[in-house]
From TrEMBL:
This is SusC/RagA family TonB-linked outer membrane protein. The lineage of its organism: Bacteria, Pseudomonadati, Bacteroidota, Bacteroidia, Bacteroidales. Residues 1-21 form the signal peptide. One of its GO terms (molecular function) is siderophore uptake transmembrane transporter activity. Its main location: membrane.
Length: 1028
C-alpha cells in the first residue's frame, strides 16, 4: 500500500468513523509473524507492526484493548507499543480494511490487514442520515469524499462538485469570492417556486438563506452575496451524497422534488490526539473578458469612442482595472477519544480580496463535536456547536448602478485613464472631497469606477451559530430509537454608505445612508424508531418510522435616507427626516411544518430489495385551506442480477461482468406554495417607507401543494475484473398544480391572484462511466459523467375566471422578464418583442447618418437558456507519492444574451466596432450600414446580441506530492502533502463574449443574461497539508 494512500485513509479514519463505527464489523482474518511479548506484573507490553497486503505500513491504525478505554494508533512506520492486561484481546481497525481481533497472549508481529471492499464501495448515506448498502438502493445516489471537495480549494465548496456528479447543473454567481451558487438537478420543475436543491446537514434539512437581490434582467443594481451552505468549512465534511431524484429524497417531503445534497460532518476518533493542518494561497485574474479596441479614439467632448483612428494605439486596457485577487485559507482539526468518548474540534479562516478594488470577503469558522456512549454502549449522545462569522465588502453589483465595470469598460480610448485613479479632489468651497470623473455619466449615471469602489460602500456582516444534539438508544440488537434537534440562527447587518458628490441619481449632495438587519432562525427536531431484523429465513427488514417539526422565521428592520447636515457622517441622527424611510419586514416569512414519515426495506437473500416510503406534512402555508396535509409515497425495487445467477455461472462471467444491478422507482413528492398569507385568516402586511402596504393577492381557500410525480429506471454495473464501472439512469418527472400569477382588474380590490394549474415535464438520462486500474507503483483512474435533460411546459391554465368579476383570465402566455412561459416550450425560453423594421421587399429601413428604424412585433422565440448536455471528464494519475488530476467540463446547447457586448458596441469600445470601422460597414442582409448607426440601433434588441452557450474548458487541475513518512522520523509530523492547483485554466471552446456558466442570480429567471457581470476568474493556488 503506497504511503500516499495510507495517509488518505488515515485522514478518513480521523474524520469519518467517530465513536464505535470503526469497530462495528465482526472480526475478519489476519496473518501474523512472531514478535516479542513481555510480561510486567499483571500487565504485559505488546508491540507490533501493521501493514497492508503489499507490505506497506499503515499509519494511524486504531489498536484498542477490548472492553476498556485503553488504546493507541500506529506511527508513521505502522508500529505500535502498548501496555495491556494479561489475557487481553486487541481490536485493530482501520477505515477501508477488515477488522482484526488478536489475543494479547499470542505472539504478535507483522499484522496484515486486508481491504474491505464493502466498506469502501458499498455504504452510502441516504435520506434522514441513514447509512445503507448502495446495492440495496432503487435510485441513483452518488457519493463524494472529502478529498474530492478539498483537493482544489474554493471558498464555496459547492463549486467543487461541478463536473463530478451526473444529473447536476452548477452555475457560479457573478458576485466573486463568497458568492452563492445555483445548483439544479434534473431541470427546472417549478415556475414560481425555488428550483435549487435542498441541503441536509447530518440528516437535518437546512433552510435557504440566499440573498438574491434582483433577477439579473434589469438595469438596476443586483447581487447574490451568499447562501447558508456557502459558509460551511469544507474541511469539516466527511462525505457528501448527491440524491438527484425525488425518489432518493421522498422522506424529506417538501422541496425534495429538486433533489438533495446530504452532508455528513466529521466526528472524533478513538486513539491518541491527532491534529491535521491545511494552508493554501491562491491568486486569481479575469478568465473571460470582452474583446476591447484601442485603435479608435473619441470625439473631443464626447464620451463614446467613435472618433478617428488614433496615430498611436491607446495604452489603456480595461483589464488593467482589475487587481490580482488573493485568497488565503488556513484550517486545522483535532481528533481525540477512546471507545466511549470522542471529540472533534476544528477552526478555519478564509481571507480574500477580489479582483475588483476594495472587494473583500472574510470568513471564520469554529466547530466542536463530542460523541459519548453510556449504559454499556446502549445510549449514544452526539453534541455539536458551530459558529461562523462572515464579512463582505462591496460584493459586485451586476447591472448599471453601483457597478465600477461600466466606467472601466466604457472609458474613452482617446483619454488618459491614469488621472481617473485620483478619484476625488478637495473642494475648498465645500470643505470636503468630491468625486473627480472627466468623461461624464454616459447618460447612464456612470461614475468613476474607483469612486464606486471606495466611496459607495456596502459592508455586510453575518454571525451564524448552529447547535445540534442527538440521542440514540439501542433497545435491542435489532431495534433502536433516536431523537435529534438543530438550531440555526443567522444575524445579518448591512450598510449602504454613499459619500457626498455621489451621482445625483443615488444621493443628494451631502450623501446618503441606509442600515438594515435581518435575523434568520431555523428550528428542527425529529424522533425516529429503527428496526433491522431477519425473518422467514432469507428475508431481512429495515423499518424506520418517525415524526418531525421544523420552523423557519425571518425578520428584518431598517432605515435609510439622505444626509441632512454633516457630509459623510453616516448615522441615524444625521438623516433628513423628510427623506428617511423606516421599514419592517419578515412577518410573512415565518413557516412551520409538522411531518410524520416511515420507510420499509424488505430484502431477499441480500439480492432483491423492495423499498416503500411515505410521508405526510402539514405546512403552515396551507393552513385554513381545504387540504392542509400533503402525502408523499414512493416505491422502489432493485435486484442484484449477478447474485441471482447460479454460482458456477457467476464465477465464469465474473472476469467480464462482476456486478450488475437493475433498479426502478416511482415517487410522488409535494411542495407547498412558497408564500404565506394566501389563505383566509392568514393575510399579513409589510411596513415599507413608514406605510403599511396593502395585501395585493386575492386569498384562496383552495390552495394545494405543487406535486411532482417521478419515474426512474437504471442499472449499475462493474466490468473487467471490477476495473470498469457503468451507471445509467433514465427518468421522467411531471410537476402539477404550478403556481401561476394572474393580473386582476382594479375593481376586484386586489392586484393579482394565484392560479394552481399546469404541468411541467422533465425527462432525461444520467450516465457515469469509470475506470480504475493499478500497475505496480502507477495507478490511473478516469470517470465520465454525462447528463441530458429535456424540459417542456405540457400545460399552463385554461378556463380560469376572475373570482370577483367573473371575467376570463388569459394564462396561455405568461411573461417573466425576458422569458415567456408557453405550452410546448421550456421553462427558460427567451423571447424578443422588437426588431429592425423592414420594407415590403424585406430590406431594413435605413438612411445613412441615422439610426435604423425599429418596430414592435409579436413575441418571437430566441431560444432556451437550458443546456442540452452537461459533461465532465475527470482523470487521476498516481506514481509513488505523486498525484496528478485534471477535469474537463463541457456544456452543450442553450443560448445566452450579452447586454454588456451590446453597450460596448454602442459606445465604440469593442473590438467588433473597430473591425466594422476597418471594413467600413456592417452588412444587414443586402444593406450596408455605417457601424455607428448599426450598433446604436441594436443595443436594446436582444435578437442581435444572442450567442451560443456551448463551451468546453479545462475546469481544474492539480499536481501534488505526499512526502515519505521516513523523512520525518524523529519529528511529530506525518502525512505531509504539497500540491499546486488551478481552476478555469483553459477555455477550449466558447463563442460568447463572457463565461456562459456564470449566472446573475441563483433564481430561476436570472439565467443566460449578462449585463456587466463580474467576469469569471482563473485561479492558481498552492496547498500544504500535514498531520501531527
Amino acid at each position: 500500500m503506497k504511503i500516499e494512500r495510507a495517509t488518505q485513509l488515515l485522514f478518513l479514519l480521523l474524520i469519518s468513523q467517530g465513536g464505535n463505527a470503526a469497530y462495528a464489523n465482526l472480526p475478519r482474518g489476519a496473518s501474523a509473524s512472531p514478535v516479542q511479548v513481555s510480561a510486567q506484573a499483571n500487565k504485559i507490553t505488546v508491540s507490533g507492526t501493521v501493514v497492508d497486503v503489499n507490505g506497506e505500513p499503515l499509519v494511524g491504525v486504531s489498536v484498542l484493548e477490548k472492553g476498556t478505554g485503553n488504546g493507541t494508533i500506529t506511527d508513521i512506520d505502522g508500529n505500535f507499543t502498548m501496555s495491556v492486561g494479561e489475557g487481553a484481546t486487541l481490536e485493530i481497525s482501520y477505515v477501508g480494511y477488515q477488522n482484526l481481533t488478536v489475543s494479547a497472549k499470542e505472539t504478535l508481529g507483522v499484522l496484515v490487514m486486508k481491504e474491505d471492499t464493502e466498506q469502501l464501495d458499498e455504504v452510502v448515506v441516504t435520506a434522514l442520515g441513514i447509512k445503507r448498502s448502495q446495492k440495496a438502493l432503487s435510485y441513483n445516489v452518488q457519493e463524494v469524499k472529502n478529498d474530492v471537495l478539498t483537493k482544489v480549494k474554493d471558498a464555496n465548496f459547492v463549486n467543487s462538485l461541478n463536473g463530478k456528479v451526473a444529473g447536476v447543473s452548477i452555475q457560479r454567481s457573478a458576485s466573486g469570492v463568497g458568492g452563492g451558487t445555483r445548483v439544479v438537478m434534473r431541470g427546472n420543475k417549478s415556475i414560481k417556486g425555488d428550483n435549487n436543491v435542498l441541503y441536509v446537514i447530518d440528516g437535518v434539512p437546512m433552510g435557504n438563506q440566499a440573498d438574491r437581490t434582483g433577477d439579473g434582467t434589469g438595469f438596476g443594481a443586483g447581487r447574490t452575496s451568499s447562501e447558508g451552505i456557502a459558509s460551511f468549512n469544507p474541511e469539516d465534511i466527511e462525505s457528501l451524497s448527491v440524491l438527484t431524484g425525488p425518489s432518493a429524497a421522498a422522506l424529506y417531503g417538501a422541496n425534495a422534488a429538486n433533489g438533495v445534497i446530504l452532508i455528513t460532518t466529521k466526528k472524533g476518533a478513538a486513539g491518541k490526539v491527532n491534529v491535521n493542518v491545511s494552508s493554501s494561497a491562491e491568486f486569481s485574474n479575469p478568465f473571460v473578458l470582452p474583446r476591447f479596441q484601442n485603435t479608435y479614439g473619441n470625439v473631443s467632448g464626447e464620451a463614446a469612442s467613435w472618433g478617428e483612428k488614433l496615430p498611436v494605439p491607446s495604452s489603456y486596457n480595461p483589464a488593467d482595472f482589475f487587481n490580482t485577487g488573493t485568497t488565503f485559507t488556513n484550517s486545522f482539526n483535532l481528533s481525540v477519544g477512546n471507545d466511549k468518548n470522542q471529540t472533534y474540534v476544528s477552526g478555519s479562516a478564509v481571507n480574500a480580496k477580489g479582483i475588483v478594488p476594495n472587494n473583500k470577503y472574510h470568513r471564520y469558522n469554529a466547530m466542536v463535536r463530542n460523541t459519548t456512549k453510556f449504559f454499556n454502549d446502549k445510549l449514544t449522545m452526539d453534541l455539536s456547536a458551530s459558529y461562523v462569522r462572515e464579512y463582505y465588502n462591496n460584493m459586485l453589483s451586476y447591472g448599471t448602478y453601483f457597478n465600477p465595470l461600466l466606467g472601466a469598460y466604457l472609458y474613452p480610448r482617446g483619454e488618459n485613464f491614469e488621472k481617473e485613479k485620483y478619484f476625488e479632489r478637495y473642494d475648498a468651497e465645500l470643505g470636503y472631497n468630491v468625486q473627480s470623473w472627466t468623461p461624464g455619466d454616459f447618460g447612464m449615471a456612470v461614475q468613476n469606477p474607483y469612486w464606486v469602489a471606495y466611496r459607495n460602500l456596502r459592508p455586510e456582516v453575518k454571525d451564524r451559530y448552529m447547535l445540534y444534539a442527538s440521542l440514540k438508544y439501542e433497545i435491542t440488537d435489532y431495534l433502536n430509537v433516536s431523537a435529534r434537534g438543530r438550531l440555526d440562527n443567522t444575524y445579518t447587518e448591512k450598510e449602504d454608505k454613499r459619500y457626498a458628490s455621489t451621482h445625483g441619481t443615488f444621493a443628494k449632495p451631502l450623501g446618503r445612508y441606509a442600515y438594515s438587519n435581518e435575523t434568520f432562525r431555523q428550528k428542527y427536531a425529529d424522533i425516529m424508531a429503527n428496526l433491522s431484523k431477519p425473518f422467514a429465513g432469507d428475508f431481512y427488514a429495515n423499518v424506520n418510522v418517525g415524526a418531525s417539526f421544523e420552523e423557519y422565521d425571518t425578520k428584518g428592520r431598517g432605515y435609510g435616507g439622505q444626509l441632512l447636515k454633516v457630509p459623510n457622517l453616516f448615522a441615524y441622527d444625521n438623516i433628513d427626516p423628510s427623506t428617511g424611510v423606516p421599514s419592517q419586514t419578515g412577518g410573512d416569512n415565518r413557516k412551520m411544518n409538522l411531518g410524520v414519515f416511515g420507510s420499509a426495506e424488505i430484502s431477499w437473500k441480500s439480492a432483491v430489495y423492495l423499498t416503500l416510503t411515505g410521508r405526510a406534512d402539514k405546512p403552515s402555508q396551507l393552513v385554513n385551506s381545504k387540504s392542509p396535509w400533503i402525502f408523499y409515497p414512493s416505491v422502489g425495487l432493485s435486484a442484484i442480477v449477478t447474485d441471482l445467477l447460479p454460482e458456477t455461472m457467476r464465477q465464469s462471467i465474473s472476469p467480464v461482468l462482476g456486478f450488475l444491478k437493475v433498479r426502478a422507482s416511482y415517487t410522488e413528492v409535494g411542495s407547498p406554495i412558497p408564500y404565506t398569507g394566501l389563505t383566509p385568516g392568514t393575510i399579513t402586511h409589510t411596513i415599507e417607507g413608514g406605510v403599511i402596504k396593502p395585501f395585493k393577492y386575492y386569498p384562496l381557500p383552495e390552495l394545494k401543494p405543487e406535486r411532482t410525480r417521478s419515474y426512474e429506471v437504471g442499472i449499475d454495473s462493474k466490468w473487467l475484473n471490477n476495473t470498469v464501472s457503468l451507471g445509467v439512469t433514465l427518468y421522467k418527472s411531471n410537476t402539477y398544480d404550478q403556481l401561476l400569477e394572474a393580473k386582476l382588474s382594479e375593481t376586484s380590490g386586489y392586484d393579482y391572484m394565484f392560479v394552481q394549474a399546469g404541468n411541467v415535464e422533465n425527462r432525461g438520462i444520467e450516465l457515469a462511466l469509470g475506470y480504475d486500474q493499478t500497475f505496480g507503483n502507477f495507478s490511473y483512474s478516469t470517470s465520465l459523467t454525462a447528463t441530458a435533460n429535456r424540459n417542456k411546459i405540457i400545460e399552463l391554465a385554461s378556463n380560469v375566471k376572475n373570482p370577483v368579476t367573473g371575467e376570463a383570465l388569459d394564462l396561455s402566455d405568461i411573461k417573466v422578464g425576458r422569458f415567456r412561459l408557453r405550452e410546448g416550450e421550456e421553462v427558460g425560453t427567451i423571447y424578443a418583442e422588437e426588431r429592425l423594421k423592414r420594407d415590403q421587399d424585406g430590406y431594413i429601413v435605413y438612411n445613412e447618418g441615422q439610426t435604423i428604424t425599429t418596430e414592435s412585433t409579436e413575441p418571437y422565440k430566441l431560444g432556451s437558456v437550458n443546456a442540452k448536455w452537461n459533461l465532465g471528464w475527470r482523470n487521476g494519475f498516481t506514481y509513488k507519492g505523486f498525484n496528478l488530476n485534471f477535469l474537463v467540463t463541457a456544456r452543450l446547447g442553450g443560448i445566452v444574451i450579452s447586454k454588456t457586448q451590446a453597450v460596448l458596441d454602442q459606445f465604440g469600445v469593442s473590438q467588433a466596432s473597430a473591425d466594422a470601422r476597418d471594413a467600413g460597414k456592417v452588412m444587414v442582409g443586402n444593406v450596408a450600414v455605417q457601424p455607428k448607426d448599426y450598433y446604436e440601433s441594436v443595443v436594446n434588441l436582444d435578437a442581435y446580441n444572442v450567442y451560443s452557450a456551448t463551451n468546453v474548458r479545462l475546469q481544474e487541475a492539480s499536481l501534488g506530492y505526499t512526502f515519505p513518512n521516513s523523512w520525518f522520523k524523529g519529528t511529530p509530523f506525518h502525512s505531509v502533502n504539497l500540491s499546486v492547483y488551478g481552476t478555469n485554466l483553459w477555455m477550449i471552446y466558447n463563442k460568447a463574449p463572457f463565461d456562459p456558466e456564470l449566472t446573475a442570480s441563483t433564481g430561476t429567471f436570472g439565467q443566460g443574461y449578462d449585463y456587466f457581470m463580474l467576469p469569471s476568474q482563473r485561479t492558481y493556488g498552492v496547498s500544504l497539508k500535514f498531520g501531527f
